[in-house]
Amino acid sequence: MPSSTSLRPSSAPANRGVQRPSLAQIQTEKRRRRRRRAEDSLAVFVREAWHVIESTTPLEWNWHHDALCIHFQALIEDWMRVQLSRMELDYMPPEMRREMRERAARLGVLLPDGTFRKDVTQRYQDILMNVPPGTMKSRIVSVMGPCWVWTRWPEWRVLALSTTPDVALRDAIHSRDVLASDWYREMFEPTWRFSEDQDAKGNYKNTRGGQRQSKGITAKITGSRSDTILVDDPHDAKEIHSAPKREAVLLAWDTAIANRVNDLRSSTRLIIMQRLHERELAGHVLARGGVEHLCLPLEYEVKRACACPSCVRGETALGWKDPRTTEGEVLQQSRFPPEVVAAEKKRLGSYGAAGQLQQRPAPAGGGMFPRGWWRFHSLGGQRPLRNGAPVSRPEGCTDAPPARTPERFDRVFTTLDANFAEGLDSDPAVLWVVGTKGAQRFVLSRRVAHGYPDTERMLRQAAKDFPEASAHLVENKANGHAIVQTLRLVVPGVIAREPEGGKVVRAAALQPSVEAGDWHLLDGADWVGDVVEQFANFPRAAHDDDVDAASQGHIWLARPEVFVV
């Protein structure tokens, strides 16, 4: 039996000898943890810093803000890991070695022996973010993002570009306001300050070697190279129909911007913008491939418009998926209630809403030429089969049985939209072979060539394959005039056609005929998808040669007064 004394409760405090932290120590620890959370998460940083640049605007946080933050953060943190994996610690001063090890420990690349992992890979070096306007994209990516990176890696250098120098300067100033704020200095206690020899509004450095350069996207790029190229809205929506202005941006990207990085093996590129045209920077980089794609339409689409690997998978390289599952579900209900969405669609029009809101260059069903307008034909009047099943048609096209291809036509002709440029990246020359029966038009063949020699051979071969073709229409511009002069003695019926009005005007003349169901594409032909998509996206398609060829033929049929060479 235990002694009575052992049952007696102790009068001594249980925590005797343990010193309680002071209020100042508790507050210091809270600040340390708060700082660590902001350093570890761009999303937390944005919410903490919001009051610095938007003191009276409420922050309505939504899941898409998290999506932008985690994809930006993954891009930068993977780059940081690669940088650490290549470092030679033996040649660093002790203080720098200690700091690099702290960074490596936080990023998960520090080994037990104090060295860094070498088997580090980047999930992506290049990312395209397509997001509607009014969703805080610039605030997160162009303003807050660079400030957050300097809390973790103050040596980071960024080249920030936008459609005009004024827009690039605006975001640079907001970013500098955050970096210079009392909040930033007290929260993160940076070991750097702004360099006195380079502290302009749009171009500033810190004393640790970090730098931000901000320019218009077509400006001359000079100075040091960057670790990240950040492009925010490279095109002016009001000028998107200007081919020279679009092409100037693409040329600048290919020749002066994309390789303006410190290390082609690991430096990163981020483009954030709305889709405005098939042949703008987003369409350009998607066509080239090798870019991660985060696409956030305002209204959810179960069937995605984009055919890039990320969209086909339905998730990004991070395994992130759009949490919406219902067709038409809005990105952020609080900011985009039904009446606001309806007003924006009305203000922007069908093409503007498709691009800026839905991140597709043309309305889902098609613009001037909806997909459902096209009719089809086949030799037997039956759907062609492949592996025992009907050959699929482009999404949005009719499922009706094809018309039977007539055995005899009223007229057969070819129509060629010529182009002088050489190479696969240039606009192609497109030739259609068309047979007419009353008001019906049957596209019998569609052929593509690049450059003058191939175009000439293509027309010669078409005339040989379709000897019943009595007319060969050639647009009398670019290399069309040269083709007319070359073939006039060997191919009968070559007709030089002068373009009448602009491309959109000529397409508008064709539009009622297609809408009436007069135009039949060859069912099952491998070129049908290309034709339907180009017409659906016109006038914002990457190419318009099929539209030009068809409208040229339509106008000629309506106006038989032609010049035969």
TrEMBL record:
The keyword Transit peptide does not apply. Keywords: Viral release from host cell. InterPro entries: Phage_terminase_lsu-like_C, Terminase_6C. Residues 420-552 form the Terminase large subunit gp17-like C-terminal domain. The keyword Nuclease does not apply. Coiled coil: none annotated. Residues 1-13 have a biased composition (Polar residues). Residues 1-34, 385-405 are annotated as: Disordered. This is Terminase large subunit gp17-like C-terminal domain-containing protein.
